[in-house]
What we know:
The chain is of the alpha/beta class. Helix content is 39%, strand content 19%.
Amino acid sequence: MSNRIIKRLLALPERSFFLFGPRGVGKSTWLKQVLPEACFFDLLDASLYLELSQDPHKLEAMTGNIPAASWVVIDEIQKIPSLLDEVHRLMENRQWRFALCGSSARKLRRAGTNLLGGRALTRELDAFSFAELDQSFDLEHSLQWGNIPWVQLDRNNAADILNSYVNTYIKEEIKEEGVVRKLQPFLRFLGIAGQLNSQVVNAQSISRDAAVPRSTVDTYFSILVDTLLGSFLHAYRPSAKIREQTHPKFYWFDPGVARAAAGLLFDPVDRIWQGTALETLIYHELKTYNHTRNRNRGIYFYRTITGSEVDFVIETQKKRPASPPHVICLEVKLAQKWDRRWEQPIRSLKGSKKLIVDRMVGIYTGERSYNFDGFDVLPVEEFLRQLHQGKIF
Ligand SMILES: Nc1ncnc2c1ncn2[C@@H]1O[C@H](COP(=O)(O)OP(=O)(O)OP(=O)(O)O)[C@@H](O)[C@H]1O
Ligand SMILES: [Mg+2]
């Protein structure tokens, strides 16, 4: 791939905002792209960091006499959380708009800041999307190595890049978090969490395998979530009455990063791994679409009473006093041929009175699209095209 800048789906908000996202997904590049005229402060700059951490008030003088509504960008804001008080003041007194960028909301929150008490929106950036890569999207490569920019821009060196990505992450995010005092148990956890990508989390058994207390496992997961390396997908519960609570699934934000965490970069990947990579990729695209197009729908998985699963349930209309919620259901399969038995969990959900299934979609790695008695079966790329065209939800 050439050196050209890939246009991102994320639109510049009109008001001040926080921009969060994992390391290296293109946050700084995007900010420079959409705010070329802004006054730019990068707190990675050591002398700037020193000056502003000693005296946050200097921010106003350093910005200069720019008119109201002008944009001010502060990159790596988590390095000086106390700067947010000053930002708050300048938003009120000077009416400047701020873009505040960081790879972790954790340090800001831990520092006791209130993220400007709702004065700023929150935006997220993630690895490249199918819709951004466009012609250069390569499903096979994305399943193996994921979509972070460094990997996509230098595809032949994916394994080495991901290896140093995870090591850098560990070094920068974890050691500096201060929460992880011992590295070895965290590394054991990381390996296990990598292997468990896309699976239901059983903290008890992870605690046993990693030989760390249960509460530590929870802390470790919260670090992954706060640094946006992964997120929990919760089980859908259309009625709150349901007794037993299903554990959530954990998804890494990118299949390549999951593979690196699992320590499998230099091993060939098997079909099972590729299947979870495909789910990870689909989830990534669902989240990206949901966020960049401001759909803000709830995304879940579903477990039927008999224990079979629906990979993704998207709630397109909430439950109302007089009507059950509306959902669309997706089943993801790494397979060249569609097996009609895979429709069963979704079809049984459609029979339920608790919710209304507006659309049933199977996503597979075959060539052809089908509609089996109301159930759409789509090749991965066709599904992604329809998703980003707004035809799925
Ligand atoms: N839209 C893009 N098109 C082409 N290359 C990109 C794009 N976005 C990012 N890159 C490349 O990916 C790398 C990482 O991007 P960038 O530094 O912007 O990420 P970041 O999210 O700010 O990372 P960090 O959290 O480490 O600050 C850079 O080398 C950049 O050139
Ligand atoms: Mg950056």
